[in-house]
Structures are given as structure tokens and as C-alpha cells.
Amino acid sequence: KKSAINLAKNPVAHGRSKHIETKYHFLRDQVGKGKIRLKHCKTDLQITDIMTKSLRADRFRELRRLLNVVCL
Question: Which CDD domains does the entry link to (predicted)?
Fold first, then answer.
């Protein structure tokens, strides 16, 4: 989600994330140092949705194909 990118880019303590210890903000540090750049990816391009969402059968098959997973 875009909120994850905002959290990584913005070094202030957010209400919902202030429980996360600073030593775990590796991604935020890397963004701050300019070593990585984050980019939003629309959900229809998210191959990982197959692992995290309930999908229609056709979408599941398409993502499975993109991952090169085959039925035996």
C-alpha cells in the first residue's frame, strides 16, 4: 500500500507505528540514504497477491502461471 511507502519515507513517529523500535527501520534508513527507491505497484501487478488474498479462480491461475508454478 502507499501507506507502507509513506511510512518508510517519513522519519517521524506515526501513531500506529510508534511501537516499532527504531532499530527495525532498516528500509527507512536505506531510503533516507538514497540506496533504494520505493515505487507504488498497483494491485493488478502484484504477483504476491496469490499468497495474501482470496482470489477469483481466473486470477489465481494467472498469478500461478506468472510464478511458473505448475500442477503435478
Answer: RNase_HI_RT_Ty1
As a whole number, mean pLDDT of residues 32-56 equals 88
Taking CA atoms, 25 is separated from 3, 10, 17, 31, 34, in Å, by 15, 11, 11, 10, 14
DSSP reduced 3-state for 24:
helix
In a domain, 68, yes or no: yes
User: For residue 39, what pLDDT is reported?
Assistant: 85
- Tally of structural domains, the chain: 2
Structural domain includes residue 37: no
Q: What pLDDT does 40 receive?
A: 85
